[in-house]
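User: Some background: our group keeps a shared notebook of sequences we're curious about, and every so often someone picks one and asks for a predicted structure to add to the entry. Today it's my turn. The entry only has the sequence so far, pasted here. Could you supply the structure so I can complete it?
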Amino acid sequence: MTAPFDLSGKTALVTGANTGIGQAIAVALSKAGADVAVAGRSAPTETLALIEANGRKAVNITADLSSIEPVARVVDETQAAFGRLDILVNNAGIIRRNDAVDFTEEDWDAVIDTNLKTLFFLSQAAAKGMISQGSGKIINIASMLTFQGGIRVPSYTASKSGVGGLTKAMANEWAAKGINVNAIAPGYIETNNTAALQADENRNRQIVERIPAGRWGKAEDIGGAAVFLASSAADYVNGHILAVDGGWLAR
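Assistant: Of course. Here's the predicted structure to add to the notebook entry:
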């Protein structure tokens, strides 16, 4: 492998890529040579510009991934734009917070539908084409709560634990068909979603003290991991959940 991380000629679909981790992954894949489609509800104007600045083709697919209704269309539009789909990154997700004794069915269903149900059926739709072409990479975004319980986020914890299990289950079925299915579990990453925690002086100190690396992660840290799992360097990596957490789980 003279250039194991080169994604030239590859095409990718990244969900929830308008900001934060999803944006960093989409941009990192484009820097490695991939053309990228981004799918989600919000217009990813900045992300598209950053991909194109790297000399790659960028496509926006507007889709509400809170249900599986747009799943087939998202895959079809990606394949129509690029001629094939080599890499799927399931990043789109939501979180709802409340005490477990007060948690509502509405909040439960909303999180499970977006984070787990849509993830599976989008993977299924993408895998059909990948099986036909004999290759593909599926990367799911898991969480520290794939391994831990968390507090006041029962549906999120359930969904991310499910993502870990589904990653292994899909890998078991599709590895022999040329598809690598793996996941990335981000630790505490500096994004808009964690702004409140970063601003809380006491909580921020507690978090950093727990992280052996001594700092919050950056979205770009996740991008590098995604490039690895999307590349030929990871051709023999199947069903793995890669924690990018500065050592959080090791402590």
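Suggested note for the entry: The radius of gyration is 17 Å. The chain has one domain: 11-190+217-250.
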